[in-house]
Design a protein that fits this description.
Number of helices: 7
CATH class: Mainly Alpha
Order of helices and strands: HHHHHHH
Helix content: over 70%
Oligomer: single chain
CATH superfamily: NusB-like
Length: 131
């Protein structure tokens, strides 16, 4: 599985967080794993590990987003855009093997695929402040 596909699956799990409480997330994770049963164990473990690390750090990630995005707090952002931005900010801050420009570009591509017509430019604008 390519890094882009892995990133897309992490985004899909992050998006579910916006609609389910902590108790429901265990069931959501199980269902998601069933959907990804065709993946090799290494890719599935990488997706789960990255998702869990983002969730563990979500408060600090959101604080950084709120600090950088003037006039757009996380509470006002669309759920798709917010999930994509969280993923990218986590990568920018914690994954040195992924260049910042790659994280931003991949986030913009996810926004084009899953967001509104304005999502790509919004995501790019917020993430540009992390460079």
């Amino acid at each position: 599985m390519s890094r882009r596909e892995i990133r897309e699956n992490v985004f899909k799990m992050l998006f579910r967080v916006e609609f389910h409480d902590e108790e429901d997330m265990n069931e959501q994770l199980s269902m998601f794993e069933e959907e990804l049963a065709h993946l090799n164990e290494e890719d599935l473990n990488y997706i789960k590990e990255k998702f869990n690390k983002i969730i563990e750090n979500i408060d600090s990630i959101d604080a950084e987003i709120n600090d950088k995005s003037k006039g757009w707090k996380t509470s006002r952002m669309g759920k798709v855009d917010l999930s994509i931005i969280r993923l990218a900010v986590y990568e920018i801050k914690n994954e040195d093997d992924i260049p910042v420009k790659v994280s931003i570009n991949e986030a913009v591509e996810l926004a084009k695929k899953f967001g509104t017509d304005d999502s790509a430019s919004f995501v790019n604008g917020v993430l540009a402040k992390f460079v």
